[in-house]
Specification:
By secondary structure, the protein is of the alpha/beta class. The chain folds into two domains: 6-63 and 162-341, QueA-like (3-Layer(aba) Sandwich); 67-142, Thrombin, subunit H. It contains nine helices and 17 strands. The longest helix is centred in the C-terminal third of the chain and has 13 residues, at 314-326. The chain is globular, with a radius of gyration of 20 Å.
Length: 345
């Protein structure tokens, strides 16, 4: 698939299928099982679809309420903080960024202020906050950084503070939710425990690059954004033991899957990992760790749709998405899910 074009991963989606709110309760979301014939199920059916001894690998990153509104003089500015660089500086996305210049001062409604230390490309800037407590200001006044396809249809509100956070959220640092994890509820976790399905956590801080469109003509020319992740020793041991005992590893979301694959050797054995990963998984990739994958429905022409096509084969995923559209599944971050079985090599 080295010569695959980005156009090969395009599809049409009716706007009314983009979910603007999550299902309530979360585990009542629909679930398309992709293994041989398609099965229309619900996320709450997951315990019956897994086996005792299987292992769920979930991402415990916590989304920062990182969107701030402010002014540069009389001009309105919206900023989404991306990652701290130390000494009170952060990288951020600014809108509109075109008129910002180095040394400009932005005053935020939260009482924070920042100087533009550097201006990058595609709306990225470096902001210097000095000794101000940025995290406290975000928790008090920041907005959840909803994806563009939701934020463009409605403003973020108080409900998103809970809705756009998984039940596993613990380690702050993401600017987007690991959305497959949004479907889990305490009741579902109890049912999975009773079934004998084990669980471990990893951390991958989802970056803003997850929303960036692929602008190259050929897939091979796209450069994947880097994201910081960590797999602890206990999680690595559980993954390896699961395979040794004949169980299956179920990656909850593309973030968990990418991190597992980043930390695996050629034999599929996972080692503890900490650092950045920019792994770009496309059709033709040989998976080494995950046997199943729980994931939401992704955007056309996106690296995430390419990943699921790699995992379950392109033709199968194209057919699955057509089935989902015809059956009126809800798409994207607040939408429904699918459970992918990796076909035999």
């Amino acid at each position: 698939m080295l010569d695959a074009k980005v156009d090969d991963f395009d599809f049409e989606l009716p706007r009314e299928l983009i979910a603007l709110r999550p299902a309530r309760p979360r585990d009542s979301a629909r679930l398309l099982v992709i293994d041989g014939e398609f099965q229309d199920r619900a996320v709450k059916d997951l315990p019956s679809l897994l086996e005792p001894g299987d292992l769920l690998v979930v991402n415990d990153t916590r989304v920062l309420p990182s969107r701030l509104r402010g002014r540069r003089g009389d001009a309105k500015v919206e900023v989404t903080l991306l990652r701290p660089l130390g000494s009170g500086t952060w990288t951020a996305l600014a809108r509109p960024a075109r008129k910002l210049r180095a040394a400009d001062r932005i005053e935020f409604a939260s009482g924070l202020s920042a100087e533009v230390a550097e201006k990058g490309e595609a709306g990225e800037v470096t902001l210097a906050f000095g000794g101000q407590d940025v995290l406290a200001a975000l928790e008090a006044h920041g907005e959840m950084p909803l994806p563009p396809y939701i934020a463009g249809a409605r403003p973020a509100d108080g409900a998103d503070r809970e809705d756009y956070q998984t039940t596993f959220a613990h380690e702050p640092g993401a600017v987007a939710a690991p959305t497959a994890g949004l479907h889990f509820t305490p009741a579902l976790l109890r049912a999975l425990d009773a079934r004998g399905v084990r669980r471990c956590t990893v951390t991958l801080h989802v970056g803003a690059g997850t929303f960036l469109p692929v602008k190259t003509e050929y897939v091979r020319d796209h450069r994947m954004h880097a994201e910081w992740g960590r797999i602890g020793g206990n999680a690595a041991t559980l993954v390896n033991e699961t395979h040794e005992k004949g169980g299956r590893v179920v990656a909850v979301g593309s973030t968990s899957l990418r991190l597992l694959e980043s930390a695996a050797d050629e034999f599929g054995r996972v080692s503890p990992f900490e650092g950045n990963t920019s792994i770009f998984i496309t059709p033709g990739y040989r998976f080494r760790v995950a046997d199943l994958m729980l994931t939401n429905f992704h955007l056309p022409r996106s690296t995430l749709f390419m990943l699921v096509c790699a995992f379950a084969r392109t033709g199968r995923m194209v057919a699955a998405y057509e089935h989902a559209k015809a059956a009126r599944y809800r798409f994207y971050s607040y939408g429904d899910a699918c459970l992918l079985h990796r076909p035999p090599a």
